[in-house]
Amino acid sequence: MHILILCREPRLYSCQRLKTAAEKRGHSMDILDPNRCFLKLIPNAPHFALYYQRNERDVADLLPKYDAVLPRFGTASTQMGCAVLRHLTAQGAVCLNNEQAFLRARDKWQSLQLLQQASITVPTSGLAGCEFSVKHAVAQASMPVILKTLNGSQGIGVMLAEKPQTAASILETLQQVNVPTLLQDFVKEAENMDIRCFVIGDKVIATMLRQGQHGEFRANFHRGGVAKKITLTMDEQQIAIKATKALGLDVAGVDLIRSKQGLLVLEVNASPGLEMIEKTSGVDIALEMILYLEQKC
């Protein structure tokens, strides 16, 4: 197969691992920045054209047809990345994940709504309209409260407010610059720990327990979190799989926390990183993704 990874940084661990795994299976792979693409619709033509410019001085190259595409782009590239995904799907390429599922996962509030509708337990959360009183929005939350911008990754855009005044100040600032933000209960008993499940298709491929640094409530690898192996029950694994399917994803990183209410799904990531979980679990996740892609094709 001729496979494309859509990613702004080809040197990332995840991209290089996927490229190595694909080539070992006999496939070729390109890693291209969606923001350097030019999409062209041609009247009465049976297909679309896709061009790529490696730098602003180069002439754009007409890209070949791809059999499959793996979206690995960040939140800043969501709009163009999903436009390229739609373009490639129209040309017959198989996607892990498709653009509609990708967009669902990228919007934190929409993804929580879909999880709730699928009878998956999520933390108590709230979202206020731009004309709703910040004071009354904060009054609906329990303190301390987590504030999350609707688009964000690697722990960026996630804040902890200990007091109502602090929460209101953060919300007012973000509202002023038109950044929609949700409020979510802080689960104290989780003790700065969460569980990352890597799901491919109908199977949890790998898991790890993440622990945030002392004084840091976020357990993300990019925020200095550390990880160790963990074994989940079959019921816990099924929750992660169900959450992935609720958003229509083929591949997902599902974040869970254990609370007094039971297991809660915090978030479902459509382009989960491979480095920390591969090194912690010892599982060749990149190879598992390529094998699944072969089956889907």
From TrEMBL:
Binding site for Mn(2+) 1: D255, E267
UniProt keyword Transmembrane present: no
GO biological process: SOS response; translation
Identification of the protein by name: Probable alpha-L-glutamate ligase
Tree of life domain: Bacteria
EC number(s) recorded for this UniProt protein: 6.3.2.-
Keywords recorded for this protein, A-Z: ATP-binding, Ligase, Magnesium, Manganese, Metal-binding, Nucleotide-binding, Protein biosynthesis, Ribonucleoprotein, Ribosomal protein
Family, as annotated: Belongs to the RimK family.
Gene: rimK
Binding-site residues, Mg(2+) 2: E267, N269
Lineage: Bacteria, Pseudomonadati, Pseudomonadota, Gammaproteobacteria, Pasteurellales
Cofactor: Mg(2+); Mn(2+)
Organism: Lonepinella koalarum
